[in-house]
Every structure is written in C-alpha cells, then in structure tokens.
Amino acid sequence: MYHDQVCGVYIVASPDHYSLYTGMSTALPHRIQSHKDGLVKGWAREYNCTKLVYYEFTDTEEQALYREKAIKGWTRLKKTTLIEQQNPTWIDLFQDLIDSVVGY
After folding, report:
1. Which among 14, 65, 85, 94 could disulfide-bond with 19, CB atoms 3.0 to 4.6 Å apart, if both were Cys?
2. CA distance 91 to 64
3. Rounded mean pLDDT of 33-50?
4. The pLDDT of residue 4
5. Which of 65, 40, 57 has the alpha carbon at shortest distance from 96?
6. Percent above pLDDT 90 for the chain
C-alpha cells in the first residue's frame, strides 16, 4: 500500500506538550509532514503542533473520521493516557509512522 492511501487518526503536540491537536487523514504520512512544514493553517499551526505523539491506522476514511470525533471529545487526561500507552516518553513518532507504512 502506498503512503498516500493510509487512513488514520493522529495527535500532534506543541514542543512543550501543552497543546494537543487531534486530526484524521486518508494520507497520514503526507498530512503529518504538512504539519511539520507549517502548511496546515489554523489552530495546530498557531500553537506549533508539529510533533507526532500518537497515531493509529483505520481501514476506511469513515472509521478515521468517527475515531477523530470521539478523541476530540475526550478530556485532556484521557488523551494523555492514550498517548502514553503507545508513547510513554512523548517522542516524535514520525519516523515510526514512515517505517510502519512501508509494511502496511
């Protein structure tokens, strides 16, 4: 599967982890790169949310949208718990995402 066909949901954080942005995409690696390059206008860019701290793949765009809306409705504590289950040290997972897509 090509990286431009990978559906999923993600959370990007500001460098100090104070701000979190949850999104979804049908081209997950491309979308995260756009955040890193400052090309995504709006809240995420305003608060410098460029560090990929959580992601998950979905089979369809509809599943990604549903999951994004669910996570956006959560408290910060619940989002933090989700992040720390996959990424306890809050490292940037972008390279991990790229590596995962190669085998997706």
Report:
1. 14
2. 23
3. 92
4. 55
5. 57
6. 87
Whole-angstrom distance, CA of residue 77 vs CA of residue 62: 26
Please identify which residue in the block is written with the tokens 């390279």. Answer: 95
CB 45 within 8 A of CB 12: no
- Report how far apart the first and last C-alpha atoms of the chain are (Å, whole number): 6
Tokens in use for 82? 């989700």
Q: How much is the pLDDT for 71?
A: 98
What secondary structure does DSSP assign to 47-87, as a single string?
TT--EEEEEEE-SSHHHHHHHHHHHHTS-HHHHHHHHHHH-
pLDDT at 58 over 70: yes
Beta bridge pairs of residue 11: 22, 54
Asked if residue 20 has pLDDT above 90, the reply is yes
Distances (CA, A) of 66 to 29, 48, 56, 61, 99: 19, 25, 13, 9, 25
